[in-house]
Amino acid sequence: MTTISKRPVRTAAVLLVASAVAETVLVRLGGTYGSIPQERAAALPGDDIVPRPDVVTDHAITIDAPPGCVWPWLEQMGWHRGGWYTARWVDRLLFPANWPSATRIMPEMQGLQVGDFVPDGAPDTGCGFVVERLEPHRALVLHSTSHLPAAWRERHHATLDWSWAFVLRPLDGGRKTRFSFRSRWSTAPWWLTLGGRLVIVPADLLMSRDMLTGVKQRAEALSVSKSFRGPAAVTMPP
Q: Nearest CA to 97 among 83, 85, 116, 76?
């Protein structure tokens, strides 16, 4: 009887350890996917916007296209603009109100400037980013304090100070691009900070990887397109 009664306890302990290991791995990957230690240690434009972050994530990918083929996709990002270039099934599952991400350069969405508002939700939510830094073909830095529901901010005094830095570095004489994406945020109260680490950071593995891959596919298709003299549609892989 003693041996039998211990089995559920041992099983629960094994599951608990396995869950902790899995969570640790997901948090690690969610914070570092695609980047190398030198990139994570390097200073990037916009680091000063959230000077004492609770969480920093760094992701990167190499794109077989020059920065000039990557930049237009970044300039038109946003809700009901070009989108965030994540997989359509992800949008349908998590953000059903989102339009499909653009597969062409939209002239009406180009010409982003410092101070512009980039929406990340319907107008009534007020959710979005402000353009803080913009260096064409090199860096785009966005900043938000509006991503939490108003009820959380009012009732619980919850805060989220969040910056995104998209940085392009030419490689191979400018024929390729190293695309880095850094997110820095500080949160309050403690339960929001803990939730961000345990939930948002692992989820970032999926969302950021999708965004990086989506930009890569579009930029590479645009690079080989004969129509890259103006607005162009690109053929996306199935």
A: 83
Inter-CA distances, 117 with 69, 131, 231, Å: 23, 6, 23
pLDDT-based confidence at residue 97 (cuts at 50, 70, 90): confident
Instruction: Please give the Cα distance from 149 to 58 (Å, whole number).
Output: 26
Q: What is the pLDDT of residues 23-71, one digit of tens each?
A: 344 445 555 788 899 999 999 999 999 999 988 989 999 999 999 999 9
Instruction: Specify the CATH number for the domain of residue 141.
Output: 3.30.530.20
Rounded CA separation 207/192 (Å): 20
Among residues 229, 181, 230, the alpha carbon closest in space to that of 209 is found at 181
Q: Which two tokens stand for residue 44?
A: 């990037």
Residue 106 covered by a domain: yes
Contact 59, 212 (CB under 8 A): yes
Number of domains present in the structure of the chain:
1
Domain membership flag for residue 12: yes
Q: Does residue 229 fall inside a structural domain?
A: no
Other residues' Cβ atoms within 10 Å of the Cβ of residue 168: 23
Q: Quick one: average pLDDT of 211-225?
A: 93
In this prediction, residue 238 carries a pLDDT of 42
The answer to whether position 238 is within a domain reads: no
The model carries a pTM of: 0.80
Residue 156: give the domain boundaries: 2-224
